[in-house]
Design a protein that fits this description.
about 300 residues, alpha/beta, TIM Barrel, 8-stranded parallel beta barrel, two-stranded antiparallel sheet, globular, Aldo/keto reductase
Length: about 300
C-alpha cells in the first residue's frame, strides 16, 4: 500500500518567502492561572527546542469576559524582554479586530490603534504575521485593506492573514489589498471537516494561502469522545497512532498536515510535554486508505 509523503521540515507562509515550522504553538490560554513570565518562558523554550518556531497569539487572548484583554501578548512581551535573543528564533503571529464589549471592530481608527497596541504589549517593533481575528460585517474591505497596507509599508507587519473568514470575505479583502494575504485560520480538525469539502482549502490553494488550523483536536473532544461519531474517528486515528507509536493527538495533527494545502495545526496546550510531543507528527506516515478512513468516520456516511 503506497504511503503519502511526509510533511516538509519547513513550510513557506503563503508566497511571502518566510519559512515557518509545519506545526505551530498557540497562546490562547497562556495568561491563565496567574502564569508567571518564568513559567511562560518554559513553554516558549519547549516549543522552540522542539523545532516549533511558529508562534500564534492574539490581543483578545486572556480576556475572561470582564478583564484580561491583551494579557497573553503582554506576558509573551515580558518573556521577550527578559530574553531578547528568543525573538530571532521565532516567527511571531498575532491577531486583532475584536474589541470587547463590541463583537468586532475593523474601522480604520480602531485597527491602527489595535496594531500599535499589540506591538507595544509584545515589546517588538514588528510581527511576521498579523491577522484579522473575525470579520467585521460593518467594515468595507477597501477601508480595512488600506489600513493593513499602510501597516506593512510602515514596517509594523510583514505579512497579512485572516481568521474565521468566509471564502467571499477572504476574496473581497484580498481584492483590495496591495500586499496580498498569505494565510487563513479556520477551525479544522478530524471532528470539523467542513473545509475539506466546502471549497475553503481549494480557495487557499488557489490564492496561495497557508491554512492555520485552530482547535485541531476538536477542543479536547478527541481526548474525551462524546458520541458514536467521535469514537469512530478516534478508532481510525488510533490505528495509525498505534502503528507509528505516537499519541492520538499527534496522529490528528499529522492527519491534517498530509493535505496538499499545507495545513499547519496550532497546538493549543500550555503543557511542556504536550507542546514538545507535537514535533513527532512530522514522522507519521499515512496511506490513502487510512487517511480516508478518518474522513469517512468524520462524515458519518460513505463517500459517493
Amino acid at each position: 500500500m503506497s504511503e503519502l509523503p511526509l510533511p516538509p521540515v519547513t513550510r513557506q507562509l503563503g508566497a511571502s518567502g518566510i519559512e515557518v515550522s509545519p506545526i505551530a504553538w498557540g497562546m490562547w490560554r497562556l495568561a491563565e492561572n496567574g502564569r508567571t513570565a518564568a513559567e511562560a518562558a518554559r513553554l516558549v523554550h519547549a516549543a522552540l527546542d522542539a523545532g516549533i518556531t511558529f508562534l500564534d497569539t492574539a490581543d483578545i487572548y486572556g480576556f475572561n469576559g470582564s478583564g484580561g484583554f491583551g494579557d497573553a501578548e503582554a506576558l509573551l512581551g515580558e518573556v521577550l524582554a527578559a530574553e531578547p535573543g528568543l525573538r530571532s528564533r521565532m516567527v511571531l503571529a498575532t491577531k486583532g479586530g475584536i474589541m470587547p464589549p463590541l463583537p468586532y471592530d475593523q474601522s480604520a481608527a480602531y485597527l491602527r490603534k489595535a496594531i500599535d497596541a499589540s506591538l507595544t504589549r509584545l515589546k517588538t517593533d514588528s510581527v511576521e504575521l498579523w491577522q484579522i481575528h473575525r470579520p467585521d460585517i460593518l467594515a468595507h474591505p477597501q477601508e480595512v485593506a488600506r489600513v493593513l497596507d499602510d501597516a506593512v509599508a510602515a514596517g509594523k507587519i510583514r505579512t497579512l492573514g485572516v481568521s474565521n473568514f468566509t471564502q467571499a470575505q477572504t476574496a473581497a479583502l484580498n481584492h483590495f489589498l496591495g500586499h496580498k494575504l498569505v494565510s487563513t485560520q479556520p477551525e479544522i480538525s478530524p471532528l470539523r471537516i467542513d473545509c475539506f469539502e466546502n471549497g475553503e482549502l481549494d480557495q487557499a490553494m488557489m490564492l496561495d494561502l497557508t491554512p492555520l488550523a485552530w482547535s485541531p483536536l476538536g477542543g479536547g473532544r478527541l481526548a474525551k469522545p462524546e458520541s458514536a461519531r467521535d469514537n469512530a474517528i478516534c478508532a481510525a486515528l488510533d490505528k495509525v497512532a498505534g502503528e507509528a507509536g505516537v499519541s492520538r493527538s499527534v496522529a490528528a495533527y499529522s492527519w491534517l498536515m498530509v493535505h496538499p494545502a499545507g495545513i499547519i495545526p496550532i497546538i493549543g496546550s500550555q503543557q511542556v510535554e504536550r507542546i514538545a510531543e507535537g514535533a513527532a507528527a512530522l514522522k507519521v506516515r499515512w496511506t490513502r486508505t487510512d487517511w480516508y478512513a478518518v474522513l469517512v468516520a468524520a462524515r458519518g456516511v460513505p463517500l459517493p
